[in-house]
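ENTRY TYPE: paired fold submission
RECORD: A
CONTENT: sequence, then structure tokens
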Amino acid sequence: MSHTRDIITPQLILLFVIAAYGSYLFHEFGHWSIGEILGNDMTYSLNSVSPRSGSYVDPSHDLYSLIGGPAFSILQALIALLLIEKYKNLSIYPFAFFPMYSRFFSLAFGGFDRQDEAKIAVTLDAGRYAVGIVVVVMLVLIVVRCSSTLKIDLKSNGSVTVLGTLCQLLVIGSYELFS
């Protein structure tokens, strides 16, 4: 049985805003932490991470730092899935949904070649779209499982997608405004 009621509540809207900003910060934390672990002095912001000096201590660190962002997005979604499987709580859903939505949105509308997955694929000579497809498919499968566990139907996920779009634009707009 799917939810037939409208799942968009003021609480869920607030959680989506928190998840949107949190997902961006966690994704960038993935880049930052790998760069730092490898010995680079990294800068960190809502939508950007780079070596403070302008270049990595070793050129290979660029690839590892690039991988850190999508890896942390997948990690966030997996943690949310585990929590949803255990607690069956709709309040966790934004933290599973938003990593998938933000990666899809960025790849589809953010200039594909500028995204982490495209840069990773080019560096690994893996085919331009290969890494992006793998990352998005993994995240979509996690969201599908979360939706199934929480009994969220397609119509409700349509509403969630609209909310995700608004939150995505809020994050992008605030980043542009304050950077």
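RECORD: B
CONTENT: sequence, then structure tokens
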Amino acid sequence: MVKIGIFDSGVGGLTVVREVKRLLPQVSVIYFGDTARTPYGIKSRKTLIRYAVEDARFLLSKGADIIIIACHSAASTASWELKARLDVPVFEVVSPSVVQACRLTRKGRIGVIGTRATVSSGVYPRLIPEERMGTEVFQQACPLLVPLVEEGWLDRRETRMIVKRYLRPLKLRQIDTLVLGCTHYPLLRRVIEEKAGRRIKIVDPSEEVAKSVKAYLEQERLLDEGRSAQEAGPPPVDMDRYFVSDLAPHTSQIVRNFMGRPVRLEEVLL
């Protein structure tokens, strides 16, 4: 059975877990949320690389066959370092969403919402024009959305007002495609789609990286010796493991909000 290791600076990467399990129910997942050292976005490049290497090696020690970097900050900074150091395939959330955004845009005007760290990194404005020449990228930092998601305020009036406010500058730029540049944001997708309007297509990096992993496993014929997901069936629930580096009192509830069910969390020290 293929074991997929997924790490993030916190619990936002669980949206990647959800998409992986939706597309690949027959694999097992090992998740690590580095909640003791979050947020990664304010760390130096050197520190980010060290954290990413430590996170990935922890997942490998638990048997991971594939690594997914679910953190946008780590993906934009440390993915090449991990690919050079590790002997397993490494996937990340940025590259596949760049490709999908360039496929979807009609006018070559793409918006990106994310944390201040992701916006400041400039990873999307750098990579998107490389994928599709002449494409314009407009970014909007949305610092209030992560705490709103973690509070479970997914459909509150206040949340809807804030989302509308954040999207307004991008709509004025007449974007036709919007990248959800944070793993928390898929939980707000319904509100974001409503406030963005029907003409703007949404790109969810959690979905795109899960599709990339599925395509790789199919190409390499690693899915239970070629059997389909339906034939193979899902693994036992206890085959999935969820680790965090700090287990605060409210963490379990936040994780439940992301996963839609209770999840057993194991605390580890790196």
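NOTES ON RECORD B: The longest helix spans residues 45-61. The domain at 3-92+207-267 is CATH 3.40.50.1860 (Rossmann fold).
STATUS: closed
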